[in-house]
């Protein structure tokens, strides 16, 4: 969730026509921006390309602002693409989508009161000793308020935006169409096969009773792990559109960018441990790697220590045994340094299509050289060192340009990989150093104790 919710209140469009009108307004604004920018460049003696006209700062602002206003699936899909694409999206599109991770409007008080009255009854305020009207966080599907119960418990109450659940399917289709038609989404990236699964996940995330059950499940899983904290469900205040839990204090994990190296390394190490436990031990994974889903509790007595707070379990889903086994075989091959074995396991797990391996053998070979060299470093992996990414991007985009070899991995693999990629992205933001090889080796051996 986004903690920056100061003075950005706007009513959530909840009706089908009002949301459709917002997309129409956005499309018109983009077209107008293109005409204005084209005229300016022609007058200056330039011959602008269509892509240059679309990817202007003004149009980037239009896209981010309108999707932020719509919230729901419209904003969520933009965030998902930005997290999934990582270093392989054009910088212009990355900049636009990054804005969606950094902003979220919240409901005005009158709309909030109407939602809570519908869920809890008109006298709902009498059930609290205090209810903070201004949200402490706002995101794509709901906003969070801090409150205190008569028995003294501090709670966090997540309230879903009105109309979000009913608008998911149409919003996903509209955003995908908008990005395609506008040229903001590269033709090399095929999102069509993912739209059905994106809708399914978003419907699951909008089911707050389901999320409450996942919250309780994760609470049981981390009960004996002192380095991880999960809020406790408050079932008497949880409904289809409201999720209540105990309030757990902490700072946004991204604020650790200015912390000591040892603190950043510990936080990233716990994140890596978490992914490995989810994949190889628990059989369930929270697949949304949004940075705001993690907070940090410092230990004043030991500055280089601290605990990771886990939030938001709407995207938690079971990891099929065959998916975990595929990763196990692939990672084992990677630790062995055997390129041939890695290629075979990557194809077997669905990461690579056989056609791509056959037609782009040299490119695959060069990419594996880079990946295996990084994986098998003798020391801790420095996530802040991105020198190797440019080469991978060049080879990957060249392969993506060959449409005849396009290949969509199994859906469950995509969701797991999304969490892995997002975790790496957060570790990169922290410029952390983690002995990832040792952690992977320990997890494959069945030893899930933190390493390093």
User: What is the first-to-last residue Cα distance?
Assistant: 29 Å
Find the structural class using helix and strand composition. Answer: alpha+beta
- Averaged pLDDT, please? 78
Based on CA inertia axes, which overall geometry fits?
Answer: globular
- The fraction of residues in strands falls at 5-15%
Q: How many strand elements? A: 13
H-E string: HHHHHHEEEEHHHEEEHEEEEHHHHEHHEH
> Biggest sheet, open or closed, and with what strands and sense?
5 strands, antiparallel
Draw up the topology in text.
Elements: H1 16-43, H2 50-54, H3 57-70, H4 72-85, H5 91-101, H6 109-120, E1 130-131, E2 137-138, E3 142-148, E4 154-160, H7 164-182, H8 192-205, H9 208-221, E5 228-229, E6 242-246, E7 251-252, H10 261-282, E8 284-286, E9 294-298, E10 306-310, E11 316-318, H11 321-336, H12 339-349, H13 354-359, H14 361-375, E12 381-382, H15 389-400, H16 411-429, E13 433-434, H17 436-444
Parallel strand pairs: 5-10
Antiparallel strand pairs: 1-3, 2-3, 3-4, 4-6, 7-9, 8-11, 9-10, 12-13
Helix pairs in contact: 1-3, 1-7, 3-4, 3-5, 4-5, 4-7, 7-8, 10-16, 10-17, 11-12, 11-17, 14-15
């Amino acid at each position: 969730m986004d903690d920056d919710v100061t003075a950005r209140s706007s009513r959530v469009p909840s009706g089908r026509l009002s949301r459709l009108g917002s997309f129409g307004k956005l499309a018109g604004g983009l077209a107008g921006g293109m005409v204005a920018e084209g005229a300016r460049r022609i007058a200056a003696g330039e011959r602008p390309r269509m892509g240059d006209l679309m990817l202007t700062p003004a149009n980037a602002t239009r896209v981010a602002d309108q999707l932020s206003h719509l919230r729901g699936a419209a904003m969520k899909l933009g965030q998902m693409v930005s997290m999934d694409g990582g270093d392989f999206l054009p910088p212009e599109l990355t900049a636009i989508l990054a804005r969606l991770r950094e902003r979220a409007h919240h409901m005005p008080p009158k709309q909030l009161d109407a939602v809570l009255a519908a869920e809890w009854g008109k006298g709902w305020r009498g059930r609290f000793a205090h209810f903070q009207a201004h949200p402490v966080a706002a995101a794509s599907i709901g906003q969070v308020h801090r409150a205190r119960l008569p028995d003294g418990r501090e709670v966090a109450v997540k309230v879903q935006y009105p109309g979000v659940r009913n608008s998911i399917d149409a919003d996903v289709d509209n955003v995908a169409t908008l990005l395609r038609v506008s040229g903001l989404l590269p033709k090399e990236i095929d999102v069509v096969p993912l739209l059905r699964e994106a809708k399914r996940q978003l419907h699951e995330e909008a089911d707050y009773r389901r999320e409450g059950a996942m919250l309780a499940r994760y609470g049981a899983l981390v009960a004996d792990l002192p380095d991880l904290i999960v809020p406790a469900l408050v079932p008497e205040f949880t409904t289809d559109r409201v999720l209540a839990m105990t309030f757990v204090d902490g700072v946004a994990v991204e604020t650790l960018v200015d912390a000591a190296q040892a603190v950043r390394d510990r936080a990233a190490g716990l994140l890596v441990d978490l992914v490995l436990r989810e994949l190889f031990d628990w059989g369930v994974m929270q697949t949304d790697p949004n940075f705001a889903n993690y907070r940090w509790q410092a230990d004043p007595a030991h500055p280089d220590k601290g605990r990771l707070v886990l939030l938001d379990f709407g995207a938690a889903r079971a990891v099929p045994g065959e998916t975990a086994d595929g990763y196990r075989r692939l990672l084992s091959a990677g630790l062995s340094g055997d390129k041939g074995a890695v290629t075979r396991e990557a194809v077997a797990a669905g990461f690579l299509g056989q056609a791509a391996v056959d037609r782009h053998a040299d490119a695959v070979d060069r990419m594996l050289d880079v990946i295996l060299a990084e994986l098998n470093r003798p020391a801790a992996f420095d996530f802040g060192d991105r020198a190797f990414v440019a080469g991978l991007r060049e080879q990957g985009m060249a392969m993506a340009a060959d449409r005849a070899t396009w290949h969509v991995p199994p859906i469950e693999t995509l969701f797991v990989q999304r969490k892995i990629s997002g975790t790496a992205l957060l570790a990169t933001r922290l410029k952390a150093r983690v002995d990832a090889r040792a952690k992977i080796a320990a997890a494959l051996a069945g030893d899930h104790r933190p390493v390093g």
